[in-house]
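Per-record layout

source: Pontibacter rugosus
name: Small ribosomal subunit protein bS6
length: 122
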Amino acid sequence: MELRNYETVFILTPLLNEAQMQETVEKFREVLKENGADIIHEENWGLRKLAYPIQKKSTGFYHLVEFKAPTTVVDALELAYRRDEKVVRFLTTALDKHAVAYNERRRNGEFKSQAKKEEVKG
């Protein structure tokens, strides 16, 4: 069984409080773990403005999860997204070797240090 790298971003309704949001994120983590996924990295982007209104809402809680898993996991995860009324939108993508390398560099802070260097020069 071949493992592939994936990245998923989901947007939760802005009507949730902090505890409800964490509970929902934990539910999706459990779906991943139950199906044999190894979570590599997570980022909570917080409440952000949507590009366009969805279900009469203009903001949502964004959350990103990078994971390594068998190909069957994506179907189970996206089914869980579709069944949960708190999820406004979601997107799961398979990462190629270049995207994996980029994400690793971003996690290590290479791009933040370059931006700071440019600020100093400018």
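summary: The mean pLDDT is 90. Helices lie at 18-34, 73-83, 97-107, 110-121.
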